[in-house]
Amino acid sequence: MSVPDPMSPSSGRLAPDELLGRIGAGDERAFETLYRAHFEALWRFAYGYVHAREIALDLVQDVFLAVWRTRDRLEVRTTVRAFLYAAVRHQALNHLRDERTAARLLRTHAVRSGDGPVGMGTAPIDPHDAAVAHELDASVMRVLDELPERRRVVLTLRWKHQLTADEIAGIVGTSPAAVRVLLSRARDDLAKLLV
Amino acid sequence: MDPELLDRYLAGECSEDEVATVRRYLMAHPEAARGLERFLNDLDAVDRTVQAPHADVAWNDFSARQRRTSAGDPRAVGSRTTRTRALSVLMARTRWWRSPGVVATGLMAAGMIGIAVLRTKTPPPPVAPAAPRPTPTFVTNNRERATLRLPDGTQVSLAPASRLRLAPDFGEERRDVYLDGEAYFDVPHDSLRLFTVFAGNASARDLGTQFLVRKYPEDLTVQVVVRKGAVAMSGVGRLGAGDLGRLDADGQASLRRNVALGTYFSWLDGRLVFRDTPLIDVLRALRRWHDVDVQLADSTLGSLPFTGTLTDASFRSSIDLVGLTLGLRVRRDGARVTLEPIESRTPTATTPATPRP
Predict the structure, then answer these.
(1) Is B68 helix (H, G, I), strand (E, B) or coil?
(2) In this structure, what DSSP letter does residue B174 have?
């Protein structure tokens, strides 16, 4: 039985491992496939942190540049997408930390997270939102306000990006068991919404 | 409703039957559905209306950065300086001050756009929002020009054979438009809702301004010329009045100052100004403006430089002027128009008739 040549043109979809193998071998088209498969979701994920289109784009581009530059020594422990999400999160958190000075200039804004830029960035409260909130289920706001930042990330990744508990654990740097605990608490939050 | 089921539904782990169960529940309980939607939107403050950049635009941008990295260009990684990054953060936050009244949805935007059509010859509606598209798109064919008024007050003149698409969320947090071809923009500046034109692999961001952007399929570069105010062009930087920025497909940028603006903007008044323009490009312009394909008897003629001003009023006078200037004959066979060297009319002329002894 012959070993498939990683460089040979392949028809149909590539298994992630095969894709990575080809990228490692310098196949630019395999890389473009990876890029196009994940760009939009990663951009939305980054946008959740920075809430600025160009910066979100920069963050994602930097991640892919790093992937391409280090393609020959990439080590992916979970899945490719978990690897990419983890890298984007890392970049986003670094970016927010660097921008803390700028954030201080904006102190007139109430920010929801008390302690610097953690989790899904800082969702500002604005008058418009506040006005709209009157019409909305007060329980929604109550549930959200009680959510720690880290749980926001976990829930976002599971409910808006459909990642598995194992992948999420790898991304936020915790154990799958800890993620499951977070998720089970989140189900209780859902239950409150559904009363 | 079992929250465990809802959790798996959101995570995409449900069977078809389970999906149907959850959907039935949500339809029967609009309050719960609304609450859930809001909960999900607020998790990361990203809702459905947030549109990612187009994948092609992003990939082109990535490729350009990648090439710059290999070339050792420091702009490759993190294209913005720290200062402007800080500025972007500032803008991202300040949008929350915006009064609710200004918000226009994509659909409203489509409805509010007023269209005025400038004909060059044929009357039928040159500009029509392409019906099946989810976003407002304006298309001109050859011989057609259009002036548009966008919902934010921006005036656009769309050159022939061009296409302008508005992002679905145009006018909400930003004003993104996508251009193929050429267009002139007169933009009321609004730093909370930046106006950005994406064309080819480049973007031009308005900093309060009148400018034009050009990238026809055959153009090797994306070209941005500023008449008034300033524009930030990707890869090039800040352009002021009289500046011409260019970005080629390889990400090579160039900037020229104090260009003759008339050359670039005269088409708005129906005049086409050429300055040492290769004949092939002149003919492409004539095709767009008059919908007439002109053939060359010899393809090497295409590189002849033409300088002159043509009007959009008459194809015949335009092509005659080109022929006269370049010493070429205009041959018409029915609808077919060919430019040829004057000698080639008499094929035997290459061996001049010598007087017989």
Answers:
(1) helix
(2) B
| Spatial CA neighbour of B225 closest among B209, B213, B207 | B213
Is-contact A59 A98, C-beta < 8 A? no
Predicted local distance difference test score (pLDDT) of residue B19? 86
Question: Nearest CB to B93: which of A57, A124, A191?
Answer: A124
Cα separation of B192 and A113, whole Å?
A: 24
Instruction: List chain A residues with CB under 8 Å of B3.
Output: 187-188, 190-191, 194
| Residue of A54, A132, A137 lying closest to B88 (CB–CB) | A54
- CB within 8 Å: A57 and B96: no
Q: Which residue in B123, B107, B224, B223 sits closest to B168, CA to CA?
A: B107
Token pair listed for B115: 């269209």
In angstroms, the separation between the Cα of residue B130 and the nearest Cα of chain A is 25
Over range B301-308, report the average pLDDT: 90
Q: Is B59 on the interface with A (CB under 8 A)?
A: yes
Q: Which of B42, B166, B194, B251 is nearest to A130 (CA)?
A: B42
Residues of chain A found within 8 Å of residue B40, distances taken between Cβ atoms: 159-160
Residue B27 pLDDT exceeds 90:
no
The DSSP output letter for A108 is T
CB atoms within 10 A of CB B232: 18
List, for residues A128-187, the tens digit of each pLDDT value.
443 443 444 444 444 555 556 677 889 999 999 999 888 999 888 888 898 998 888 888
For tokens 């089921």, name the residue. B5
For residue B7, list chain A residues with Cβ-Cβ distance below 8 A: 158-159, 183, 186-187, 190
Across the interface, whether the CB atoms of B52 and A158 are under 8 A apart is answered: no
* CA A9 to each of CA A6, A22, A140, B151, B256: distance values in angstroms, whole numbers, following the listed order: 8, 10, 51, 48, 44
Asked whether the whole model's pTM tops 0.90, one would answer no
**A180 neighbors A165 (Cβ within 8 angstroms):** yes
Name the packing angle between helices A138-145 and B30-44 (round to 10°): 30
ipTM of the complex: 0.71
Which residue in the block uniquely carries the two structure tokens 């990707």?
B234
List the domains of chain B with CATH numbers. 3-113 (no CATH), 137-265 (2.60.120.1440), 270-341 (3.55.50.30)
Judged by CB atoms closer than 8 Å, whether chains meet at A99 and B89 is answered as yes
Our CA-based measurement puts residue B165 at a distance from the nearest CA of chain A, in whole angstroms, of: 18
CA distance B149 to B115: 6
Instruction: Name every chain A residue with its beta carbon within 8 A of the beta carbon of B1.
Output: 194
Mutation for B interface: A68, A84, A194, most B CBs within 10 A: A194
User: How many other CB atoms are there within 10 angstroms of residue B83's CB atom?
Assistant: 9
Give phi and psi for A103, each to the nearest 5: -65, -35
Rg (C-alpha) for chain A, rounded Å, is 20
- Tokens representing residue A134 in the block: 């009157």
A-chain residues near B80 (CB < 8 A): 54-55, 58
